[in-house]
Design goal:
The chain has three helices and eleven strands, in the order βααββαββββββββ. With 200 residues, it is mainly β. The protein has one domain. Helix 1 runs antiparallel to helix 3.
């Protein structure tokens, strides 16, 4: 299993490389596959999403917020919105080992959760699922997660976290993903590891 990352967080990479490389628990390593369209890969139209949101030890809160890339406009006549289906059963969670390694490395886990949803159309306005809809209630943490599909599947988030009276840290990013890959979204103060699998 591979990991996609844009690293602006060099001191953290030593620990994170231990966390996000290698196959997820209980899964065999598979050869890289050519990208599939979401319709071909997920016949049911649903996707399982698991995320860990964490803070780095001593991570700065005053760093400039990251900016999401611009997204092409979708055809509003055929626009689909994302729908929350329900929580992901614990038996299907894959990132327990990653969470343990992050904790041992001194990282503060803000959220470790999973859910099943449908995807929004690529570039659809207000396509994200708010944290409250996902059952996430963490003091100082707000925002949403986005899963969008066009020819390819994209996952991202708009998150804001403020704690201990420090300026808020913001993470705003969306990128193309492949199924069963651990994707690392980084920022000097806040990070996300996410994995998306087809079906509910």
């Amino acid at each position: 299993m591979t990991i996609r990352s844009r690293s602006a967080w060099l001191p953290a990479l030593t620990v994170l490389s231990l966390v996000i490389t290698g196959p997820a628990a209980g899964q065999a390593t598979k050869p890289a596959a050519t990208p599939q369209t979401p319709a071909a890969a997920s016949g049911s139209g649903t996707y399982s999403v698991e995320v860990i949101v964490f803070r780095a030890p001593g991570g700065r809160s005053d760093a400039a917020p990251s900016a999401a890339p611009s997204r092409g406009a979708s055809d509003t006549a055929g626009t689909q919105v994302a729908r929350y289906i329900g929580p992901l059963p614990g038996s299907r969670m894959q990132l327990g080992g990653a969470r343990e390694k992050l904790t041992r490395g001194g990282y503060r886990i803000l959220v470790h959760t999973g859910w099943v949803q449908t995807a929004a159309s690529w570039g659809a306005p207000r396509s994200g699922l708010p944290l409250e809809r996902l059952g996430i209630d963490v003091p100082g943490l707000s925002g949403s997660f986005q899963l969008e599909r066009g020819t390819l599947l994209h996952f991202g988030m708009t998150l804001r976290h403020a704690s201990d009276g420090n300026p808020a840290a913001q993470l705003n990013e969306i990128r193309r993903i492949r199924f069963n890959e651990r994707n690392y979204y980084d920022h000097p103060a806040i990070g996300v590891i996410a994995v998306v699998t087809p079906g509910g």
